[in-house]
Amino acid sequence: MVDALVEIHRVLTPGGILVDARPDSRVPAYAERRKPRGFQRFGVVKTSRLELANDRASDRAITRVVREGLFKRRRSGRFWHRVPFSDLAELRKYLWEHQRFVHRAEWVVDSATRKRHLNDQFVIRRAVRYELLEALRSPRNISLARPD
Amino acid sequence: MSSVGKDSVGDFGRHVPALSSALRPRPHDELREWGGSPLVRRKRVLDLGCGDGRLALGIASLAARVDGIDPDPEAIGAAKRNARKAAVRNVRFATGAAQRLPYPDAAFDLVILSWTL
Predict the structure, then answer these.
(1) CB–CB of B112/A21 below 8 Å?
(2) Which end of chain A is more exposed for a tag (fewer CB within 10 A), N or C?
(3) What is the pTM of this model?
(4) Number of domains in chain A
(5) What is the share, in percent, of chain A residues with pLDDT greater than 70?
(6) In this complex, is the C-beta atom of B20 within 8 Å of any C-beta atom belonging to chain A?
(7) How far is it, in rounded angstroms, from Cα A2 to Cα A57?
(8) What is this model's ipTM?
(9) Residue-range definition of the domain harbouring residue A22
């Protein structure tokens, strides 16, 4: 990842901006039922171990190129994004197929409630994090031989 | 984290394939969260890991030029088809890896890693 960030620095003008945006695995996602007004939380959806490890590796790579003087952190933030599903079965299918999340939600409502709302519309609400980094003009030499 | 923005809600009631770009926020929703159109306006932009061109095509009307690159040739094929369908002329797509970008030094004002790193 560091080698990709070094290459990005090369193609950016000095003062140019790198936007790094990705799902925020540090906070859980939520399975929610859509109500006429608003949403009802039905479960918590955790990120898979593999993706957590990938995200930590990405964080380390960013930290390293900042430390090495290639980029300066400018601004960061987080927003929420809802992925829509036409019913609970579709949401479950998505969790089963999607690698980012664990395959089963941890339900916070009982099975009778889930059964009653099987055909309602659902969403997975997840956090997306972003960071803007500024390419600096004169980076110190960076050794790619060292681990991230 | 310095800010928490509003929810961005997609369209309900449609099937969402697991690997579809439909799972992502809409380009203008993302751009608004990052700081809005000034970030992109009249800039030379590289969308790294562009997939089917969702974001590149979504911001092309604001940018001077957008290049999209992705290691997946099928995704790049889809991106080119989407560009033709949308009649977007200031976007180019290429197959390639982030570790060896086929662009000269200082070619871009903005590089976007959206759900890529």
Answers:
(1) yes
(2) C
(3) 0.83
(4) 1
(5) 93
(6) no
(7) 10
(8) 0.82
(9) 16-50+74-133
